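ok here's NAD(FAD)-dependent dehydrogenase, seq below lol
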Amino acid sequence: MPIDTRSPLFQPLSGVACPKVMIEYDGVPVQVIAGISVAAALLEAGVREFRRSIVGNMPRAPYCMMGVCFECFVEIDGVPNRQSCMTPVRAGMCIRRQDGAPDHSGDGDGDRA
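and the structure came out like this:
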């Protein structure tokens, strides 16, 4: 699992109490701030690779954080093509990095890669 040291860009404000929940990313339990987007929670936890590109198999991560670029696709609770920047985190989520071509069967939120 590609987790780096925590970025100073994704740290909660000091002195502000934030409730936490447990999720799982690629089989590893991760404690994250409740109520924020999955993308923000994973970035705050140090995750730097959310999916691999179809061409070149290059690592990809959230870019726009507002549902436009589709770089943040992950699999959430077995459903592929979920836009992590538009999905609120909740306790018990099982999130996996998405590899390869997205499945356009209509199961996920996104409609393009």
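fwiw The radius of gyration is 13 Å. kinda neat tbh
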